[in-house]
Write a structure and sequence with these properties.
about 300 residues, ABC transporter involved in vitamin B12 uptake, BtuC, single chain, about 70% helix, 13 helices, globular, mainly alpha
Length: about 300
C-alpha cells in the first residue's frame, strides 16, 4: 500500500464524510432543542436539486449553496408548523417530510437529469491543492472547510455561550425554560430552521461537489446515517467529526476493497456496512435508554405549557 494510495483514501473519506457531518450538525441543534426531525433525507434532496438548479441557471455555485440552505430551511418550516404550532406527532411528520422531499426533488429534477454544473474553484494555490502530498490538507472543496468551521462554531455556541445554554435548557426542561420567560416555541423554530438549512447545504454537496450532475435520490440514504450519527456521538458536537469520518471510512471501503483487489467479502457487504452500523448504533441507544441516555430529556415530546 503506497503513500499515494493512503493519501487518496484520506481525501476520499473526508470528501464523502462532509455532507453527513453538515446534516448531522444541523440535526444536533434541532435535537438539542428537544425536537426530533426524521425528515433529514428529504431536506437534503430538496437542497440538492435547488442548489443544482440555481447553479445551472446562474453558473455560480455559491448562489447555489445559499439557495439550497434557504430551500432546506423553508421545507423545515413546514415540519415546524405541523409539530410546534399544530401539535402533530414528530416521528410521523418527519417521515412524511422525508417522503415529500424524495418525491418533490424527483419532480423538480426531471428536467435536469444528466446535466452538469460548474464546480467550486480551490481556495488554495494549485501548487498546494494539487500537490501529491499537500492535497491531503489543501486539496478539498471549500465546502469541506466550511463544514469543519460550522461544527466547531456550533460546539462553541452550545457549550460556552448564553444562547447555547438557553437552547439546551429548552431541550432538557421546556416547562422550566418557559416559566422563566424563554419562548420555547420560538427557540425551537429557529433550531429547526438551522437544521433545515444545514441539511439543504449537505444535499447541495452531493449535486455540486461529489457528483456535479443531477440524479434521482442521489443522497442514497445518507440522511438516515446523519440521524444515527447524532445518536452515535451522544449529542456531543466534538464527537460528530470522529463519527462522520468513521462512517465515511466505511463508505469508502467498498471502492478501495475493489481497487486493492481485496475480495475476501463481496462488495455488497462493504456497501451495506454504513447502514448496518447505523442499525447497531440505534439498537445500542435503545438499550441505553433503559440504563440512562445522554439524549435531551424533552426530545420528541410535545411542549404543553398548560398541562
Amino acid at each position: 500500500m503506497t503513500m499515494d494510495f493512503i493519501i487518496s483514501a484520506i481525501v476520499t473519506v473526508v470528501g464523502i464524510s462532509t455532507p453527513i457531518l453538515l446534516a448531522a450538525t444541523g440535526e444536533l441543534v434541532v435535537e438539542k432543542s428537544g425536537v426530533l426531525n426524521l425528515g433529514v433525507e428529504g431536506m437534503m434532496l430538496i437542497g440538492a436539486i435547488t442548489g443544482f438548479a440555481v447553479t445551472f441557471t446562474t453558473f455560480n455555485p455559491w448562489l447555489g449553496v445559499i439557495a439550497a440552505a434557504a430551500a432546506g430551511a423553508a421545507v423545515s418550516m413546514v415540519f415546524g408548523v405541523l409539530v410546534l404550532s399544530l401539535g402533530s406527532n414528530q416521528v410521523a411528520t418527519g417521515l412524511a417530510l422525508a417522503i415529500l422531499g424524495i418525491g418533490l426533488s424527483t419532480l423538480i429534477g426531471a428536467g435536469f437529469t444528466g446535466m452538469i454544473v460548474p464546480q467550486f474553484s480551490s481556495i488554495f494555490p494549485s501548487v498546494l491543492s494539487h500537490d501529491p502530498f499537500w492535497r491531503v490538507i489543501f486539496g478539498y472543496s471549500p465546502m469541506v472547510y466550511i463544514a469543519l468551521a460550522i461544527i466547531f462554531a456550533v460546539g462553541w455556541v452550545l457549550n460556552y455561550t448564553r444562547a447555547g445554554l438557553v437552547l439546551r435548557a429548552v431541550g432538557e426542561n421546556d416547562l422550566s425554560a418557559h416559566s422563566i420567560g424563554y419562548s420555547v416555541i420560538g427557540i425551537r423554530y429557529m433550531a429547526i430552521a438551522f437544521g433545515g438549512a444545514m441539511a439543504g447545504i449537505a444535499g447541495s454537496y452531493f449535486s455540486m461537489v461529489i457528483t456535479p450532475m443531477w440524479a434521482e435520490r442521489m443522497t442514497a440514504g445518507r440522511g438516515w446515517i446523519a440521524l444515527a450519527l447524532v445518536v452515535f456521538a451522544g449529542w456531543k458536537a466534538g464527537r460528530l467529526v470522529i463519527g462522520a469520518y468513521l462512517f465515511g471510512a466505511l463508505m469508502t471501503l467498498e471502492l478501495y476493497a475493489k481497487a486493492s483487489g481485496f475480495q475476501f467479502l463481496p462488495s455488497q457487504f462493504w456497501a451495506s456496512m454504513p447502514y448496518i452500523m447505523a442499525i447497531v448504533v440505534l439498537a445500542v441507544i435503545s438499550y441505553r435508554d433503559r440504563t440512562g441516555s445522554e439524549a435531551p430529556a424533552c426530545l420528541g415530546k410535545p411542549f404543553l405549557p398548560n398541562s
